[in-house]
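hey so i finally got around to running the thing on that chain from the lab meeting. sorry it took forever, my laptop kept dying and i had to restart like 3 times. anyway pasting the input first so we r on the same page abt which one it is
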Amino acid sequence: MMNLMHWRMVVAVADTGNITRAAERIGMTQSGASQALALIEETLGVQLFSRENRQTLPTAIGLPVIEHARAMLGALENIRKTVDAAKGVQRGTIRLASFPMVLATFLPPLLRQFNRLHPGIQVVALEVSDDEVDSLLAAGLVDVGVVLNPTPSRNAGRLGRDAWVAVLPAGHSLARRPVEEGVTLAELAQQPFVLATGGCSTNARSLASDAGLQLCDVRVEVREWSSAFTLVRENIGVTVVPEMTLPSQLQGLRVMPLKPRVDREFALAIAPGKPPSAAVQALLAMLADR
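ok and heres what got predicted. didnt touch it at all, straight out
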């Protein structure tokens, strides 16, 4: 029965033109090489080589068979290289830091996909604020972290984006406008305000500051988005939240787009100052292929 050693011997005979030298190349005895060649020719029912003047040369049918054998052995070598390269990411741990909302919304489906692709890699997620993500990355205490609005120079894999929207009591004067008109941050900054942070330093107050504005009347500050919606329903004030945090039930609320639109982008950044591990590279490669 033919095996890989037989086909390696066929290629070696073609390369050397001599069974003895071919046998030495692949670690067979001369008699073993001769028997192997005879077995292949008998199995195929054709003569692959002719023996002339101490040389072993391919026949007409032997030439294409030898090229197919080369291609087969080359493909097997590529398989081996692929497997060897992947061994570095078969096992490992990735320490990931994220602020709560992304950890609860964007990341779960991505981490499930990554687990299917690389079941031997464990991702340990740490829930922190957005400021703490940068601190943990800078200290090298985590391997990757979710960052907001990364600069183009930062080594990060994009996760997604969402828009900031205004949430008003249903009976508010600004809520009487057509939705397509939206509201401006300047208008909202003058209203009694419910400031929701979601545990992040990027919130309505920082958005207003970036636009050269100030929230004039913050009635209450809460961490949980759900608490903000309850307070807005009770007519305590208006708020500005990421669109993905909106509740499924909007009774008593009026959602309006900000004009001009303000987005925030999420990305997965690596710790600076050290090369990413093979496991981290696999995670970033998966994000790039999305």
